[in-house]
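WARN no homologs supplied; continuing
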Amino acid sequence: MECGPSIEGATPLTEPGAVLLIGEMHGTNEAPEAVGRIACHAARRPERSVIVALEIAKDNQAAVDTFLASDGSSEARLAVLQAPHFVQPFKDGRSSAAMVDLLESIRGWRSQGAAIDVLCYDVNPGWHTTGVQRDAVMAESIVAARHAHATAALVVLSGNIHNRTKPGTPWDPAFVPMGVPVREAFPHTISLDFDSAGGTFWACMATPEGETKCGTAQGSGTERGSSAFVELFDEADDAGFDGTLYVGTTTASEPAVPSM
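OK structure emitted
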């Protein structure tokens, strides 16, 4: 089973029963690709199982499961692209081509015997009225998955606000991110912030006129080499991150299904 190069520092974080929260900047090729490599290398070890949890609404679970069990044909890929997650009008990077590529990689590894499952843990449309309620429901899904699969390595990809493990954000001191109740339930949880050398990403951002426009944007960062790696801090920072996942220079991944 070919996983690509292992990511330095990631292997010790994916032991059986591990909970690894990985924050991303939506809309890059590099974050989903790195998560795939982490999951693949974890699953290569004997009798190891992995759950990759993605910020996709729960009502897409059946479509994702069907695709993972398929032969990966063009018909199977077209079917998953018709799931609500990929055809919804708002395309902020979570429904990128790179996310579909991650699903395809997992499908391929599963066909070779890897024990990797995908969990769609985001709320369905209409399930929440506030960001706090949304994060609380997402956390419940992660906690339930951990209890149901106690020996699997749980690798959770989310925007890097959701995986903070301390309350508050710069714009809302009362906000309780998803990572807070997850760490309360599982103190051994490791949460990683996103780090890069800068580059491009696909984003939907508000304009001064109050509109939302989506497209390729330029991000900042610090060059730390071309290879991805995990760096752990001596202690959690003010946001509750235990370290970072550095992915090198980012490139934008456009929506898998373009806006009409």
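The helical segments are 30-44, 61-68, 74-81, 84-87, 97-111, 131-148, 179-185.
OK
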